[in-house]
Amino acid sequence: MARRIADNAGRLLLDLQNRGELEGRALCDAGDREANRLILDMLHAERPDDAILSEESADDLSRVARSRVWIVDPLDGTREFGERRDDWAVHIALAIDGAPAIGAVALPRLGLTLGSDAPPPLAAPQTPPRMLVSRTRASKLCADVAERIGAVHVAMGSAGAKAMAVVRGEAEIYLHSGGQYQWDNCAPVAVALAAGLHASRIDGAPLRYNLPDTSLPDLLICRREWAAPVLDAVRNCMG
C-alpha cells in the first residue's frame, strides 16, 4: 500500500509540473498541498484507524499514544521540484511502536519507487567511498568526516534522493547533521534497513519515530562496512 500511495502522489506531482501552468513558489506550494491531500485521503480510506504525521498537516499529538502511525512527506525536496530537477521524492512510511516498519520512496522524475517490500540487491561498493551531502547546505562536520575517511563528496538534493542513491549503489554513505524531521527520513530509513544497510543517529543510537518532538536532526545511512569508520570519525571530529 505504501508503494501504491507513493506512486499515485508522484504521478500527481509530475502532472503538475508537466501542465506548465505554475512555476516557482506557486508550483511548490501546489505540489505540497495537492500531494498531501491525495495521500491523506488514501490513508484515511484504507487505514482509518491509524494515526498520521505529515509535514504538510497540523500535528495531532494524540498520535503519540498510538502504535501505528503513518509518517509522510508529500514532497521531499521542494526546491528541487520547483527547479524541475530529478532529485526530489515522495515519502510514505508506517512506524509501529516507534520503529520504521514499512516504507516507500518514490523518485518520480526517474520513474522509480523503492520500497521496503522489495528492495533492490546492493551493488558492489566503490573505493574511495562516495559520501552524499546536501547540495545547498553541507555541514562542516560532513566535510571533516569525509576528509578523515577519504570519502569523495557527491552533492544531491532531497533526503529521500540521497538515501535511495545509497540503496541503488550510487554512493556508499549518506551522512547528515544539519537538521531534519521525522518525515524527512522515516520512509528512507525503512527502505535502507530492508536493503541491508546501516541506519542510525550519528552517535550510533537507533532512529526512533512517533516521538512528541518531530525534530530528528542527524542521520547516517551507509553500507554496513562503513558504519564503524564513519561513527568513529564523527566522534573524533566532534571532539
TrEMBL record:
Any one GO biological process: 3'-phosphoadenosine 5'-phosphosulfate metabolic process
Residues that coordinate or bind Mg(2+): 55, 73, 75-76, 184
Example of a GO MF term: 3'(2'),5'-bisphosphate nucleotidase activity
Keywords: Magnesium, Metal-binding
InterPro entries: CysQ/Inositol_MonoPase (IPR050725), Inositol_monophosphatase-like (IPR000760)
Short name of one Pfam family: Inositol_P
Cofactor(s) this protein requires: Mg(2+)
Repeat keyword on record: no
Protein name, UniProt field: Inositol phosphatase
